[in-house]
């Protein structure tokens, strides 16, 4: 029963994506929506990305210095480990999990509200491809902004690590040596590539849950919750696959 229900939902999702990924009928309208979505989904998320990344970078640096590094290890171990954690997992995977809660719930509730207030039905009556008109700008906008959010997250995490150096937890020289030790630029690109896939998951899955809402405001809230849970689970599964593929 569960497998049948899941397969039916997956089939409906694929059908929706088939409608979403069609060529826009009016490019001027699409570009206007695209720019607006970049602002609402990406630019408005910069603050929370910078804040969380700053404190996570500082906490990682403190924890490694106090609990892992020992006289038997090089003094640059703290900076090196902080860099690897920020690049390989936090700034791509964990940050996208956080954005799934902020952005995903916003997308699901917005589209869900349009469904229960029959605005989507009105678009269909006018002959507009409502799936492409409403969802495609969100998907493209999120996939456009997510690489910038990843870079901001990485930089903010390193700034947080240097804040601990100013506080005397570690010397700035040791931290700098650790951040530069055996640096592999591919890790930055790997984080960006992974985040683009995660951005598609967040925007498309949240849109799916909002688009097929049935009922009233209570069901819109339920769809928002389901969108966050579903996209978070898919991000974790996809992270395993992409990590193995890109490493």
Give your account of this protein's structure.
- This protein has nine helices and no strands.
- The protein has 247 residues and is an all-alpha fold.
- It has one domain (27-246).
- Helix 1 (2-20) crosses helix 6 (130-166) and helix 3 (46-67) packs antiparallel against helix 4 (77-116).
- The radius of gyration is 21 Å and the shape is elongated.
Distance between the termini: 37 Å
Strand content: under 5%
* SSE-based structural type: mainly alpha
Number of helices: 9
What do the pLDDT scores average to?
89
Radius of gyration of CA atoms, rounded to a whole number: 21 Å
Give the tally of structural domains: 1
List the keywords.
mainly alpha; 247 residues; elongated
Helices and strands in order:
Blueprint: H1 2-20, H2 27-42, H3 46-67, H4 77-116, H5 119-125, H6 130-166, H7 172-180, H8 186-211, H9 217-246
Helix pairs in contact: 1-6, 2-6, 3-4, 3-6, 4-6, 4-7, 4-8, 4-9, 6-8, 8-9
In short:
With 247 residues, the chain is mostly helical. The protein has 9 helices and no strands.
């Amino acid at each position: 029963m569960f497998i049948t229900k899941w397969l039916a939902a997956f089939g409906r999702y694929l059908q929706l994506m088939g409608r979403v990924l069609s060529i826009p009928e009016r490019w001027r309208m699409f570009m206007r929506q695209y720019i607006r979505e970049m602002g609402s989904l990406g630019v408005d998320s910069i603050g929370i990305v910078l804040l969380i990344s700053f404190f996570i970078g500082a906490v990682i640096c403190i924890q490694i210095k106090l609990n892992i590094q020992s006289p038997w290890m090089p003094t640059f171990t703290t900076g090196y480990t902080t860099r690897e954690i920020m690049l390989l997992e936090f700034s791509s995977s964990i940050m996208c999990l956080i954005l799934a809660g902020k952005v995903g719930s916003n997308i699901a509730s917005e589209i869900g509200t349009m469904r229960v207030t029959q605005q989507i039905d009105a678009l269909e009556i006018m002959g507009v491809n409502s799936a492409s008109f409403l969802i495609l700008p969100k998907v493209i906008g999120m996939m456009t902004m997510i690489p910038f959010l990843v870079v901001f997250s990485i930089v903010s995490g390193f700034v947080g690590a240097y804040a601990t150096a100013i506080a005397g937890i570690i010397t700035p020289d040791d931290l700098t040596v650790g951040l530069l030790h055996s640096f592999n630029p591919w890790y930055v690109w790997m984080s960006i590539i992974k985040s683009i896939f995660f951005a598609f998951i967040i925007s498309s899955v949240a849109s799916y849950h909002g688009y097929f809402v049935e009922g009233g405001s209570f069901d819109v809230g339920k769809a928002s919750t389901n969108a966050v849970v579903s996209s978070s689970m898919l991000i974790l599964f996809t992270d395993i696959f992409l990590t193995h593929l890109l490493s």
